[in-house]
Amino acid sequence: MKQGVSRESYPLLVGDVGGTHSRFAVVPGPGAAAGGFRTLKCRDYAGLAEAIGAYLAQCEGPRPLAAAVAVAT
Description:
By secondary structure, the protein is of the alpha+beta class. Helices cover 15% and strands 36% of the residues.
């Protein structure tokens, strides 16, 4: 079975959520570098959905079709 993200999943939202900051970016296509990096303060948002919504509101271009988010626990 082939592993990885399918071409139909792009653009892809990637995120790293920590205790203090959430960092987001978008990967526009297979093999492409991530861009549109933003760091948001976690305390400014009620939860992950609100932080992602705020990030996407600042982005131009097509909306991500999938996401990969790492969360510190």
